[in-house]
Write a structure and sequence with these properties.
The chain is of the alpha/beta class. Helix content is about 20%, strand content about 30%. The chain is built from seven helices and 29 strands. Strands 1-19-21-22-18-14-17 form a seven-stranded mixed sheet, with helices on both faces. It has a six-stranded mixed sheet with strand order 8-5-7-6-10-9, with no helix packed on it. The longest helix has 19 residues. The structure holds adenosine monophosphate (AMP) and magnesium ion (MG).
């Protein structure tokens, strides 16, 4: 089961065997999903978070001309006399064109102003002093002797040279990327189409927030978590409501929605209980691959296809749904949207706790980052949504780990940028 070409349409998420590692599951998803067709051109601000559809190549140098990095004095080092004093013959502010520097003179220059032809260094204002009491300030200046060639000069094309590839197709457009496009003179960018994603909750126990809780009912939180997670991705999320625990209704709703979406996400109903209808509904309509992920929380997930549309059944427990979303839905969606890479942001922090775990599965603990160390939230059940809302990162404990002790380096996935 390898390669980039989908085999039989029905087989594309096939996986033999028992527990599936998170890595293998994400690899299956990204290998089998083909990016959507279609692009659009958007103004920079509207392109935030979108995926660049074509390479951004610089058509001019950035910066466009050699300019001063400081407020100071431009001069030619070879012109410095014994006393290091030069008369100030010109003043160049940002936005002004620079005349050539007359030999034996300095020019007052401000940050961002063009370097006058003939000058080969700029002395910072703080490294100069007015020359002689009788001479009014700025008419002549004592300059430093030890400046190297090009000191405080930003050469043309220092940042990006004309013709250089600035951003690859598939780049996710964040604030620096949009700023770079603007700096290269581009007011609009061609981006990929966003996948249209339908989100269902499932369960007879669920009621909408705002509705009173009848006996044995609980408010639907997953849909709202998932819709918010999708809003942080290049995706057009559509709220498709709550499905009852009934096989026929679930099958009909999924079938109908598959025709109008690029991906369907559900939560709940993928375990082995007799009221878990999502698995069976996918099976009835198309093809299903039920995955037991080697991860805690987040174990059961269903990946299927209905009429050519991928359907991802996430677990019902709120924290498990988020973990499975980050490992399966996120790479799938980024891949559909044509993103070049999809890794989760990871960094390292020392553990401020000790913990014992079972080998053979990956575990995600919720942690706060205090003074650079990872502090564990006291409870970590898969249903405890507050454990996510009150922390800042997942600590990712690898499959083979069995004991974490205070001070051990931990891999940490900060929520920032994901949520
Ligand atoms: P299930 O996989 O359907 O058996 O659900 C597992 C647990 O997650 C149950 O306690 C459900 O009540 C809960 N759950 C399922 N869906 C949601 C949801 N949308 N919002 C909050 N809790 C949910
Ligand atoms: Mg359920």
């Amino acid at each position: 089961m390898a390669g980039l070409t989908p085999p039989e349409p029905g087989d594309c998420f096939a996986h033999e065997g028992g527990l599936l590692s998170v890595e293998a599951a994400a690899a299956l998803v990204t290998a089998r999903i083909v990016p959507l067709h279609g692009t659009e051109e958007l103004p920079l601000r509207a392109a935030r978070g979108r995926i660049l559809a074509e390479p951004l190549v610089a058509t001019s140098d950035l910066p466009p001309f050699a300019n001063s990095a400081v407020d100071g004095y431009a001069f030619r080092r070879a012109d410095l006399p014994q006393d290091a004093i030069l008369p100030v013959a010109a003043r160049i502010a940002a936005g002004q064109a620079a005349e050539p520097l007359p030999p034996g003179t300095a020019a007052r220059i401000l940050t961002g102003a063009p370097i006058p032809p003939g000058a080969d260094a700029v002395a910072m204002q703080e490294d100069t002093r007015p020359a002689g009491l009788a001479i009014p300030t700025n008419i002549a200046i004592t300059l430093p002797r030890d400046l190297p060639e090009g000191a405080n000069i930003r050469p043309a094309g220092e940042d990006i040279a004309a013709g250089e590839l600035a951003l690859r197709a598939g780049h996710r457009l964040d604030a620096p990327a949009l700023g770079l496009a603007a700096a290269l003179g581009r007011p609009r960018l061609r981006v990929t189409r966003r996948p249209v994603i339908g989100v269902f909750s499932t369960g007879d126990e669920l009621v909408e927030p705002g509705q009173p809780l009848r006996p044995a009912a609980t408010h639907d939180s997953n849909r709202h978590t998932l819709l918010a997670l999708l809003d942080a991705l290049p995706a057009e999320a559509q709220d498709l409501g709550i499905l009852p625990d009934r096989a026929l209704a679930t099958a009909e709703a999924l079938h109908e929605a598959a025709a109008r979406h690029d991906l369907l996400l559900t939560s709940g109903g993928v375990s082995a209980g007799e009221e878990d209808h999502v698995r069976r509904a996918i099976e009835a309509n198309g093809t299903l691959h039920f995955w037991k992920l080697a991860v805690k929380p987040g174990k059961p997930a269903a990946m299927g296809m209905i009429a050519g549309t991928p359907v991802l059944g996430l677990p019902g427990n709120p924290v498990a749904a988020v973990v499975a979303f980050l490992h399966l839905a996120r790479p799938l969606i980024l891949r559909l949207a044509g993103a070049a890479t999809t890794p989760l942001p990871r960094l390292t922090a020392p553990a401020a706790f000790s913990h014992r775990k079972k080998p053979g599965r990956r575990e995600y603990l919720r942690v706060s980052l205090v003074d650079g160390a990872a502090h564990r939230y006291p409870r970590d059940g898969a249903g405890l949504l507050a454990s996510l809302a009150r922390t800042e990162a997942f600590a990712e404990l690898p499959e083979d780990a069995i004991a974490i002790d205070a001070g051990d380096p931990l891999t940490v996935i900060p929520y920032g940028g994901l949520f």
